[in-house]
Amino acid sequence: MSSKPRIATCSLAGCFGCHMSILDIDERILQLIELVDFDKSPIDDLKHFTGRCAIGLVEGGCCNEENVHVLQEFRRHCDILVSVGECAICGGIPAMRNNIPLKECMDEAYRNGPTVYNPSGVLPNDTALPLVLDRVYPCHEVVKIDYHIQGCPPPADAIWQTLVALLNNRPVELPYEVLKYD
Amino acid sequence: MTDIGHAVRQICAVYHNDASRLMDIIEAVQSRYGCVSSEAMNLIAQALGIPRVEVHSTVSFYSFLSNRPKGRVIIRLCSDPIDEMFGMLPVANTFEETLGVHVGETTADGAITLEWTPCIGMSDQAPAALINDVVVTYLSTDKAREIVAELRRSGDPRKLVHRLGDGHNAHPLVRAMVHNNIRRKGPVVLADLPPGAALRKALAMSPIEVIRDIKTSRLRGRGGAGFPTGMKWEFTRQAEGARKFVICNADEGEPGTFKDRVILTEYADLMFEGMTIAGYAIGAKEGILYLRGEYAYLRPLLEHILQVRRDAGLLGRDICGKRGFEFDIRIQLGAGAYVCGEETSLLSSCEGRRGDPKNRPPFPAQKGYLGCPTSVNNVETFCCVARILDRGPGWFAEIGSKGSPGTKLFSVSGDCAAPGVYEYPFGITLAELLRDVGAEDVQAVQVGGPSGQLVGPDSFGRRLEYDDLATGGSIMIFNSSRDLVHIVRKFLEFFADESCGYCTPCRVGNVLLLRKIEEILHDRGSPDDLHYLEELSATVKFASRCGLGQTSPNTVLSLLRNFPEVLKRRLKPPAGEFLATFDIRAALADTERLVGRSSVMYAP
Question: Whole domain around residue B506: which residue ranges?
């Protein structure tokens, strides 16, 4: 194992848009590879942590118990945990269900929806399927989150600047242009 | 033409279809129909020629106004911590049981509504409630049952008053069971002055000389901010505008404050005299007394005193024979909104709109009520003004301390032998005050109300004055049996409710502060929360638009600074990765029930 700092990333209840934005740093990804090694991440498809990580980037909020479990693993293995994007920070689109009672959501999805065929009316309950939570939780309501990078998705520059600052132990410089969305 | 249409048109006509009198119009409609219905709002908008949304916006802003019918009698229980300390919760439970409704609901027959309301200015005779306009004090569970029985029998809250209070509380126009509880009189405010004595001395001088006297006296505003009164008047006098206004801020909403109630009851003449002098000094012909809705029971008395002053030539044209000097005062009744004590919100409210604060500059002295130069001063400030003109600025400046001349009224409540109103020269120490009011075993004192500071015994040697422990008058005393975190929670609940919602730092920030304090109160706090509270408080203070949000985090900050051990006792680092506030079992319970199996990953 090299002595470079390790980075892990994951997408919980998100759309992978934030990961696309990570890739959107373009040719700087070559610089990134010089700076760090990737641990558990969809980018290298490592399924389990192989060691201690300096930084964990979390996309998406927690809508089911598996999300919670992954987030818990990230907190356990990462020194610094960063919520990346709207869903991790506020729950995002998945959290739109938070104002609808859980049973109504389930009924609409698995029993009464116009395209549903489910004569026995059973709700998915195979043990291989993670159970959904009562509502979608932003990551910082589940574990301690050290930093938040906002945006849907956050621009590649914001992610890049944050990583470089954290890796070099410098204050992050995020000019207004990088964080304005109108 | 429908009946209500005719009535609303008539009410609007009384106020000359003037949209800036919308508050009075709405209050009149509500007192006639019990609420301002959708139909009534349309009619008001038509009559005044304003968009309906403006009417709706005002109706929905004030807690005493409603667009839905409520009970013919509304019982408003005072929710501040002092009332709770003296037994409000069992009283509230008794009301709920005997009425058969929860707080916030109306009985099925539409007779009685039960509600919470923030401090009604009766902390010295807690627990207290407002029943329509009638104040009931020193409540107990037995009294709650008697009140419900009487209301069921007669439906008339006035019949609840058996024994009248002292002084003008027993006046035929007041007839309240309220007690003044004046415990210590001083030479400035709580002293007699024959009506007109100070005014005649003022009229013998030029307006500029009157302002010079007020400046020489170094009088500072008594509402809390302490701005030099003479300077405020000078700015207002110098501002361009043919029409100018004097406004008296009697929206005494800071929980634990009730000194203005006593002034309004017993020394209103002194206050009106001060307002008239202000009118002369700044060149205003019109004055407004903005009276908080909770003190509506004093309005008939105040109107009477105004009439007596008019009859005596102390208001109206050619006052005291001074040719050309014309001044009169009208009363604007508020409708239950703390933020209206903030002067720019108060101006919005006087103009008939929501009590939203305005941007400053321009300051009210330049552009205030209806865009005209306006001086807004506190009830007590006007009393000082009259006394200064009577006794001279030198006499006044010698009382009190160097930076804080004169005396101050303190509204003392909580754990002490003699709650009530005390007039002291500025500069007395908190310890002296605590001794005089008979407070023992004191854990903490909230100085200046929830927006002020919570201080402990190490601060009892500090002085009550602008430059040390500043206060608009509220002194709440908590002994060692009280839970300070709970008290701060109550204060934050109050601010979250009373935020006008205009700016995000205040609207959202106060709710976040409240939630965090509640987590700590439920033993789900972690050491990181101290930093969170500190940072969030700084943001809310820095970024809020008006005094409400700029001061609401003070209660949290002073708990952090002065009572760190009280907080730390309740904090523990989380055992695993999860935050103490996250409960995975609770988050899964509903789903487990719906799908009929338990979690494998997080087995119970």
Answer: 485-568
Distance from CA of B317 to the nearest CA of A (A): 59
- What CATH number is associated with residue B475? 3.10.20.600
Q: Which residue, among B512, B519, B590, would best test binding to A if mutated, counting the most A CBs under 10 Å from its CB? A: B590
Q: pLDDT tens digits, residue range B442-461?
A: 999 999 999 999 999 999 99
Residue B1 clears pLDDT 60, i.e. is over it? no
Same domain, B257 and B347: yes
* A125/B595 touch (CB, cutoff 8 Å), yes or no: yes
CB-based contact A142 B595, cutoff 8 Å: no
CATH topology of domain A6-95+133-174: Rossmann fold (3.40.50)
- Rounded Cα gap, residues B546 and B21, in angstroms: 24
Facing residue for B596 by CB, picked from A103, A125, A137: A125
Domain ranges of chain A: 6-95+133-174
Q: What is the ipTM of this complex?
A: 0.93
Q: What is the pLDDT of residue B10?
A: 96
Cβ pair A65:B597 closer than 8 A: no
Contact A6, A53 (CB under 8 A): yes
Q: Average per-residue pLDDT in chain B?
A: 96
Question: Is 60 exceeded by the pLDDT of residue A1?
Answer: no
DSSP string, B365-381: TTS-GGGS-EEEEEHHH
Q: Answer yes or no: are the C-beta atoms of B131 and B139 closer than 8 Å.
A: no
B414 with B441: CB under 8 angstroms? no
The number of domains in chain B is 5
* CA B304 and chain centroid, separation: 24
Angle B299-311/B268-282 helices, nearest 10 degrees? Answer: 60
CATH of the domain at B187: 3.40.50.11540
